[in-house]
Amino acid sequence: MMKFIRMLPFILFTILALLFGVALVNGQSANRSALTNEKIPSFSLRSFSRPNALFQSSEMQKPSLLVFWASWCGICKTELPALSQFAQKNNIPLYGIAYRDNHQALLTTMYQMQHQVKFTDMGLDQTGEVGAKYGLTGVPTTIVIARDGSIARVKSGAMTERELKNEILPVMR
Amino acid sequence: MKFFLSCAKIILLACFLINPAWAQPRPVSDRDIENITTDLRCLTCPNENITESTSPMALDVKNYIRERLSAGDDKDQILKVLTGRYGEELHYKPVWAYHTLLLWLTPLLALACGALMIVRIFKKDQA
């Protein structure tokens, strides 16, 4: 019994180290959103791609990708061409929401990226209200929307090519 | 005279009832918002709470809290929605549930282990 008590701190330490190790390798806690498996929160924004039209969550095709980005975000502008190319190649609808952005700055950025980035539809969330509904903690954030209209995955930060292939394609099939 | 007094009362009552102040949202002070945001973690800069943080996420949360307090919601209702959006990570104080048992019990277990070791050392010294 005494031997067991003497060993207890080491046993506890080993168990904790193993638990932390498993969580670190899986990386689930870092990118698992509270909204995973929930229905997409509804929104209605003025469409940036279609004049005098609304970009509404109810009209989005499923499965699809929804990316929150901003003209003031450098990483977004680096990531978007690759994401758009991937979406076009795999025939996946790509929707965009410019988060806390300015209309004029967005127009300029869209003009600069017109040959590299093609959105199925895009809206401007000037006040951040839609971003808040999606629990946004930063941009870029990519939301993978499953066939049943639920959120399959939320990725904060730019997506790597491996993530695009391994985590988006299986949801789209 | 009585007639005029009655008319004046009715007019005064009508003015009071149609006062636009009735339709105004509840005034919300910064203090009311801070009462909620001080215990919430900014997920963009985790070393700051929502009150201190100036990140867009913190601004979104503060705007939402102001809007809901103004609409008459209470703290619990607001926190429930925010937890649904941002997850339990938003709270500095973890919830008491099955999946957080290890988190709550580890310090107690560590204390118990320490106490046992001290008792053992004392016994050894006495022997």
Q: Which value, in Å, is the CA radius of gyration of chain A?
A: 20 Å
**Biggest sheet of chain A: strands side by side, in what order?**
5-4-3-6-7
Shape of chain A: elongated
End-to-end separation of chain A in angstroms reads 56 Å
Largest sheet of chain B: none
Radius of gyration of chain B: 27 Å
Task: Identify the biggest protein-protein contact and residues per side.
Answer: A-B, 26 and 24 residues
Number of helices of chain B: 5
Number of strands of chain A: 7
Oligomer: heterodimer
Give the ordered list of helices and strands of chain B. HHHHH
Strand content of chain B: under 5%
- SSE pattern of chain A, N- to C-terminal: HHEEEHEHEHEEH
Number of helical runs of chain A? 6
Overall helicity of chain B: 55-70%
End-to-end Cα distance of chain B, whole Å, is 105 Å
- Main β sheet profile of chain A: 5 strands, mixed
Poorly predicted segments of chain B: none
Low-confidence stretches of chain A: none
Which structural class matches the secondary elements of chain B? mainly alpha
Question: Given the C-alpha coordinates, what overall shape of chain B results?
Answer: elongated
